[in-house]
Amino acid sequence: MNTSTVMHQMSGDLGILLAIIFILFVGLRLFGAKFKGKMGELKVDGLLVKLPSTTYHTLDNVLLRKKDGRTSQIDHIVVSKFGVFVIETKNRGGQIVGTEHQNHWFRVWAATCRRI
User: Fold this and answer.
1) Whole-angstrom distance, CA of residue 12 vs CA of residue 91
2) What is the Cα gyration radius of the chain?
3) I need a surface site. Which of 34, 35, 101, 102 has the fewest CB within 10 A?
């Protein structure tokens, strides 16, 4: 085998490797957030199934149709004698702060604050 054949084979392998890396990078950019969000919902699912079924009833992935025909999706609804709890899951760091009287709540982490 001569040097030219080896170099040609190596360049082909390098091209395949670069294509695989590119596909993985694009896939993570397109589906990474969706995957992370689904993992957050599964964590909450794991906690909700531990609630006593005699007191709490859960509905997951509820799709509501609005009057104008559009739809709205709710991650979890928990119904109990203590009230109805609507849970929207976000798999992000920090803490959400706000009161029922505020129009906007904030995500806080470290010493910074971002309006959500």
Assistant:
1) 40
2) 24
3) 101
Which amino acid is present at 52? P
Walk across the sheet containing 56-65 and list its strands: 56-65, 71-80, 83-87
User: In this predicted model, which residue has the larger pLDDT, 73 or 35?
Assistant: 73
Closest alpha carbon to 75 in 65, 86, 67, 64: 86
User: Against a cut of 0.90, is the pTM above it?
Assistant: no
Both tokens of residue 85? 């709890």
How many CB atoms neighbour CB 66 within 10 A? 8
**For residue range 3-39, what is the model confidence (pLDDT) as tens digits?**
555 455 555 677 788 888 888 777 766 666 677 777 7
Contact criterion met (CB below 8 Å) for 90 and 38:
no
**Is the pLDDT confidence value at 56 over 90?**
yes
